[in-house]
Design a protein that fits this description.
This protein has 220 residues and is an alpha+beta fold. The protein has 2 domains: 9-158 and 198-218, Alpha-Beta Plaits (2-Layer Sandwich), CATH 3.30.70; 160-195. It has helices at 26-33, 58-71, 97-108, 136-156, 160-170, 175-182, 186-195, 198-218; strands at 9-16, 39-47, 50-55, 74-81, 115-119. A hairpin with a 2-residue loop joins strand 2 (39-47) and strand 3 (50-55). It is globular and about 55 Å long. This is DNA-binding protein.
Length: 220
């Protein structure tokens, strides 16, 4: 058993919340996640309302979390660690410790729309253990999970109008151009960016990426 390419990966399990009372959102989720860069295995339906994929890069994990949060209605479980080699053709055929803790993480989120991140190291902390008692990797994983939870909470409060303005700005448009496109004032564009937490969310995304990179580095 080795890590993918000598590096740990993040196995991500996602599960549709209240799927028995809602339409099947898996096709939409798969279409959205197909645009994520930095994947070892593309996301695919694994069982019923569950989707699974594997990320090699911390940035990919953050991208997945943001895309699913924007869609709404998804629980997320993340497992960091090794996967067995040689690698198979798809995530459905793959095995390894990262898969085991990803499953544990998603099971822990069954009653909520929240997020859980666990490591696959043998000494991973269990139960209600304070972060001060963790070893180095456990601290890094706890920080990464905390950053992702905060990112998810802030992104989850962004309105459709907020996403619309942010999308245009992040494609390179100026506030003046966005105002013209939407038929509103520049002041209104600025207000929407502020209400959307544009700067704060970008900072949190950067923090989440850095803490994920640290957590994944600790497991080498």
């Amino acid at each position: 058993m080795t890590k993918h390419g000598g590096h740990p990966v993040a196995v991500i399990n996602v599960d549709q919340h209240a799927s028995r009372r809602r339409p099947d959102l898996v096709p939409d989720a798969l279409a959205e996640l197909a645009g994520v860069d930095g994947l070892v295995f593309q996301f695919e339906r694994t069982a019923g309302d569950e989707v699974q994929g594997v990320c090699a890069a911390p940035q990919a994990v953050v991208d997945v979390v943001l895309r699913l949060t924007r869609m709404g209605g998804w629980r997320i479980g993340i497992g960091i660690g090794a996967i067995d080699e040689p690698l198979p053709a798809s995530t459905r055929q793959a095995r390894g410790p990262a898969y085991l803790v990803a499953r544990e993480a998603i099971e822990a989120r069954r009653a909520t729309q929240s997020l859980r991140l666990l490591s696959a190291l043998p000494d991973q902390g269990r139960g209600n253990v304070g972060v001060a008692t963790y070893g180095g990797f456990q601290k890094a994983a706890w920080y990464a999970e905390s950053a992702l939870i905060a990112l998810r909470a802030l992104a989850g409060r962004r309105t459709a109008e907020g996403w619309e303005v942010v999308d245009l700005i992040e494609r390179g448009s100026t506030q003046r151009v966005v105002a013209q496109q939407l038929g509103i004032t520049q002041a209104a564009v600025s207000q929407r960016l502020t209400a959307a937490g544009h700067d704060e969310l970008n900072r949190l995304a950067g923090l989440a990426t850095i803490t994920l990179a640290a957590a994944m580095a600790w497991s080498q």
